[in-house]
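Check these lines:
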Amino acid sequence: MSGVETLSAINSRPTAVIIADQLRERIIDGSFGPGDQINEAQVAAQLNVSRGPVREGLHRLVQEGLLLSRPNRGVFVRDLTARDVAEVYEAREVIECAAAEVITRRALDARRRTVERLTPIIDRMTPYADARDWRGLGRIDLEFHTTLVEEAGNTRLVRAYSTLATEALICMSHADETYPDPDRVDADHREIASLLRDGDMTAVHLALHRHLSLDNHQLHDHDDDGDLRHGRPEERAAPVRAGSG
């Protein structure tokens, strides 16, 4: 079955947002693979809509970085390279640390409420980790991290994080190396939650760095003296492709 055939008809009033959401899900689950062309006319026919909202929906996904528009050729699913994966995880760390800065400055009762939101999400991860169900685990994992960012109460951080979360889901769905140690999924997330409750921002940053650093994909590191920094030189990024091995 081709990617287009996995789309379902839109029975209610069609909108570009609904179309973009459907296409995004089909990219995440692999119905549309890296490099696949998404044909505007075929999508419109499958969804029984005009080409206008389809064109707008595709444009939304181009803006999100999930699709590439090639003049005179069409729109194609972006193939995430090793550098793309590294950039996604580096940017996630920066945004999550910014959110954690806000959370850790709050009073203990407020930090406890944040942990109360995060803990049930962690509890749901274990069966997926045990089954090595990367797709299911990835969605719950991203729910944890998205909730962490939401807890800062900064809509700009949430908006910036949403596209990164989608790209991270694609990485998780198609490359189990994004979970370098799946047996530590539960422990790592509980550690992050515990450190948020304690209000120890330095420890939170180090925990997030360890959690979001992928073997052979890392663009930045921390200095040997423990100073926190970002922006490791590009030439030190490993020249491997996401999902290889």
In short: DSSP finds ten helices and three strands in the chain. The chain has two domains: 4-77, 82-236. The chain has a mean pLDDT of 82. The two ends are 26 Å apart (CA to CA).
